[in-house]
Structures are given as structure tokens and as C-alpha cells.
Amino acid sequence: MKTLTASLISVLLSTTALAAPPWGDADPKAGYQKHQEKCAACHIRLYGGDGSKMYTREGRLLSTQLDVLQRVAACNSQVHSGWFPDEEAEVAAYLNQQFYNFTD
Most CB atoms within 10 A, among 7, 18, 30, 33? Predict the structure, then answer.
């Protein structure tokens, strides 16, 4: 019985770890601030309005949580935001919470 319980706990823990987003427990509120400081002006210049069309337009290329994190990292590199990976994670967490709502 102990072996079965330990095995079940192990499976449950590994399943939970697999379901965790690639940005872990990053703070979306901190990501919002960073987004406003470094991303919004460029997106407004490209798409007009408040820049959110960048995320809501037809044919957007992102379809997973990992895509969001990778895109944030690429933008960080392109515009030299100077963010560390944990800061990129905060922005990705914000974008997913606000616009994408990807669960995988």
C-alpha cells in the first residue's frame, strides 16, 4: 500500500509540474509595468491605438505559452530592453493573462 501511495503521489507531482507554465510563478503585475515601459510605444507605432492589436490581430503566430515566452525573449533582444529571463517571464505571464489565455 505504501508503494502504491508513493507511486501515486509521484505521478501527481510530475503531472502538476508538466502543467506549470514555462514562466513558473512570475508576477503578471510586474510584467504589466515592464510592458508599458518597454513594449507599448513600439506596438503603438506599429499598430496604432493602444498597441494591443499586436496581440489580437488575425493570423497571429503565437499559439502556446512557450511561444509567448520565446517572443518576449526575442523582442527583448531586438530592442535591447536589458531584461533578465525572470523579467521576460513576468512580461510573458502578463501577456498570457491579458490577451492569450493559453493553457498549454
Answer: 30
